[in-house]
Amino acid sequence: MSQPDVHEPFHLTAEQVEAGMESVRQSPRDSGALDLIVIRPARDERLVLPLVEVDLEHGLSGDSWESRGSRMTEDGRAHPGDQVTVMNSRFARLVAATQDRVPLAGDQLYVDLDLSVHNLPTGTRLEFDEVAVEVTDVPHTGCEKFRMRFGMPALRATNTPEGRDLRLRGINATVVRGGMLRQGEVARVSRP
Q1: Where are the beta strands (DSSP E) in 71-178?
Q2: In Å, how far are 16, 40, 143 from 151, measured between CA atoms?
Q3: What is the CATH number of the domain that holds 54?
Q4: Cα(136)–Cα(82) distance, rounded to whole angstroms?
Q5: 81-133: per-residue pLDDT in tens?
Q6: Are 168 and 88 in contact, with CB atoms under 8 Å apart?
Q7: Count of other CB atoms within 10 angstroms of residue 177
Q8: 142 vs 85: CA distance, rounded Å
Q9: Which domain covers residue 115, as residue numbers?
């Protein structure tokens, strides 16, 4: 995949974001398709893959999660609670405006699934054919890059009470069962 222009000037208005939210609110609750797999080989690089190997210790093969480290750990090592980032694919497509810009959100897995706090509490597992990830309590919030890429109305939507409840910016998860993960697989919700 060629790298989308990070400085794409088109952003949705607040009214356009709100108009698209009804579809996001109707995301499936118990199972949904894995629409996109993206790894981040280096800062600001995205690579869309049809399949990826997922490892218990190292996360998604080829992704920079481990080498980037974390400010949340005392020694600066990667935090296991944000090993895998998951975003609602309906919201990602909405704010990206075009499919080729979705990977700019910076998440790894884009699923057609209700990621809300009520639907996927901490400890909930997303079970794929071989792979399983578990939702952690590590917050996943919008950032300056998200605003630059998708606009202030998109960032504001993630930070409203409803946006936080729906986890529009996504969730963090950790790998609990490794294996091969393929685009199009179904994520089945297994609640604690």
Answers
A1: 84-88, 109-111, 125-127, 132-135, 171-177
A2: 12, 21, 11
A3: 2.40.33.20
A4: 8
A5: 889 999 999 999 999 999 999 999 999 999 999 999 999 999 999 999 999 99
A6: yes
A7: 14
A8: 13
A9: 14-190
